[in-house]
Amino acid sequence: MASAQSLITAAALNQTYVSQDRSVVPALADVSLDVAPGEFITIVGPSGCGKTTLLRIMAGLLRPSSGTVHLLGRPITGPSRSVGVVFQDPVLLPWRTVLDNVMLPVQVLRLERERYRARALDLLALVGLTGFEGKYPHELSGGMRQRVSLARALVHDPALLLMDEPFGALDAMTREAMNLELQRIWQESGKTVAFITHSIAEAVFLGGRVVVMSPRPGRITDVVTVELGRPRDLDLMASDAFGVYARKIRQALGPRGLLE
Amino acid sequence: MRVSDVRQRPHVVLIPLVFVAFVAAWEAIVRAWRVPDFLLPAPSAIARALAAGLANRVYLEHAWITVAEALAGFLIAAVTGIVLGTVIAQFRLLERTLYPYVVAFQTLPKIAVAPLLVVWLGFGVSSKVVIAALVAFFPVLVNVIVGLKTVDAPKLDLMRSFSASRWQTFRFVTFPNALPFVFAGLDIAVVFSVLGAIVGEFVGSQRGLGNLILQFNTALDIAGMFAVLLLLAALGVALHLVMQAIQRRVIFWAQPDHVIGA
Fold it and tell me: How far is Cα A114 from Cα B191, in angstroms, rounded to an integer?
C-alpha cells in the first residue's frame, strides 16, 4: 500500500488484454513496486515483458485490469501534472520550433507563459541545446531530438519522470553520452526517475535499483540494488563491480536473459 | 551555365530541347504535307493567332472571366471542404453515415450535372462558379477527412499525457498534422476549378475562354483554338505554381515526398 515516504506505489497490478482470437492474454501479473522520492530506478526485461504496459499504467494512460497505483499518496485515475513522460520516439511536432515544442505542456496546461519560458530556456541549456531554440526538429540529429523531448517532459516541473526506452533508437556512442547527461540532469534536478530499457548495461549504469522483469506474463523476478557511487562514469562499465551486477541481472532474467 | 552543371542536371537542357524539337517537327510536317489550316495549323500560325488575340485584348477579357469563375469556385470549395471535412472527421457517427454519400458523389462525374446547373442558374457567371466549386469540393473534402484521421498514436498519447482537451489536441496536433493532406487536396482543387469553369462555359455561356473555344470551333479557326488551349495550359501551370509557393511557406516542415498528390 501507499506508504507515506514513497513517491509512486504500484500494488498488485494485473493487466490482461483480449487478443484477436479472443483468448485472454495476461500482460502483467501481480506487479508491485515502490519508488522513493529522488530515486532512479531502471526496469529491464526482454521485449514483451510488459514494461511499457507498466509505464503506461504509471503515466495514467492505461487503466490496469486490477490493482492500484498511488502517486504522492493519491490513487491515479488519469494522466497527472506531476508526471513527465519521455517516449521511445521523441514525438516532436515538426511544425514547432525547439522552444515551442518544449513549451507545449505549458500551453496545454495553461501555465504562466513568461515564467515557464525562462524555465524552458534553462532546460534547453541543461540538455546542451542552447542556440537551437529557433531550429525545427528536422534540423536536429536523433540524439538532439530526444534531448528536446527530455526538456519538454521536465518543463512543467513534474515530480516523476517516466522514460520508455528513450535512447533505444540511438547509436551506441550517442546513447552512452545521453546516459551520462541524464545522470547529471537527474542529480541536478532531484527528480524521481523510472527508466525502462532492454539493455542490462544501461540499467546498471543508470539505476539505483534495477527492477528485472520476465515475459508472458510480465512479472518482477528480482530487484537489484546497485551500490556504485555517483556520479558514475563510462570507465565504470569496464570494472569488476559493474560486471558482477550485470551478471546478477542476466541470471535473474533466466534462460531468456540473452538480450544484447 | 557551365558544362559541369549540365552534366549533373541534363534535364535542364533536355526539357526545352524536347519542346523545340517537337515544335520544329510539327512546323516541318505541316509545311511539307501542306496540311490545311482547319485541320492542323502550323505552330507559327498559332503563335500569330495568340499574338493577335493578346494584342487586341480579346483573349485577356475572356481569360479574366474564366479565372474569376474558377477562383471563386475554388474559394467556395476550399472553405466548405475544410469546414465540412473537419466537422465530419470529429464525429464518428456522422462520418460513418455520410462517408458512403461522399464516395457516391465523388464517383459521380460532376460535370454531367453542368447542364442542370445552367438551367437553374442561367448563362451568367454564377452557374460556372457553382460547377467549379462542385468539381473542386470533393478532393478538398476527402483529403481533409483523411488528413485529420492520419495522426500517429504517439502524438495523441503525448497530448493525453498532458490531459489535453479535445480542442487542444485538434488545435496543437491534429489540424496542423493534416495540413499536408489539405494542401494536396487544394492543389488538385485549383486545377479542377478551371476545368469546371470551362465545362460550364461549354454548356451555355456568353463569355469566357470556354466560350471562345466554341466560337473559334464554329468559325473553324483552329489556330485560335490552339492559342486558347495554350492560354489555358499557362493558366493551369500558373495556378499550380502559386499553390506550391503557398504550400512551401505554410507547411515548410513537410517533405514533398510525404505529401500525397504533390
Answer: 46
Q: Helices in A63-218 by DSSP H: which ranges?
A: 98-108, 113-126, 142-154, 172-189, 200-206
Which residue of chain A has the CA closest to B158? Answer: A91
Q: Name the burial class of residue B111, with classes exposed (0-12), middle (13-18) and buried (19+) by CB atoms within 10 angstroms of its CB.
A: middle
Are A129 and A183 found together in one domain?
Answer: no
Whether complex ipTM tops 0.90: no
Residue A163 phi, psi (nearest 5)? -130, 125
Residue A112's domain comprises 88-157
The minimum CA-CA distance between B36 and chain A, rounded to whole Å, is 58
A chain contacts of residue B157, beta-carbon cutoff 8 Å: 61, 87, 91
Please report residues of B whose CB lies closer than 8 A to that of A60.
161
Q: Do residues A221 and A210 touch, judged by C-beta distance below 8 A?
A: no
Query: Is it the case that residue A212 has pLDDT exceeding 90?
Result: yes
Domain locations in chain B as residue ranges: 1-34, 49-258
Residue A230 in grid coordinates: 555517483
Q: Above 70 in pLDDT, residue A159?
A: yes
Report whether A225 contacts A209 (CB < 8 A): yes
Q: Are residues A123 and A202 in the same domain?
A: no
Task: Reply yes or no on whether the pLDDT at B102 is more than 90.
Answer: no
Query: In this structure, are residues A137 and A90 in contact, taking their beta carbons and an 8 Å threshold?
Result: yes
Provide the number of structural domains found in chain A: 2
Spatial distance between the Cα atoms of B184 and B262, rounded to a whole number of angstroms: 6
- CATH topology assigned to domain B49-258: MetI-like fold (1.10.3720)
